[in-house]
Amino acid sequence: MPFRSDDLVDDIMRSAPHTIRVFLEFRMACVGCPIACFHTVDDACREHGIDRAKFLAALCESVPA
User: Fold this and answer.
1) pTM of the entire structure?
2) What are phi and psi of 8, to 5 degrees?
């Protein structure tokens, strides 16, 4: 499942719940955050000081085989 930097954080976690652990591993408190339905991955990475490319790679790697 490809994830993009313009995907909404809430959409990702709802459609692919296995990604929640990735958010938590990167210490992103997006789970349950009311802003998650407005923030894109790019917004969240910028807000939390996370390297977007590394985060997107981790999201993609989290997809079950």
Assistant:
1) 0.89
2) -75, 135
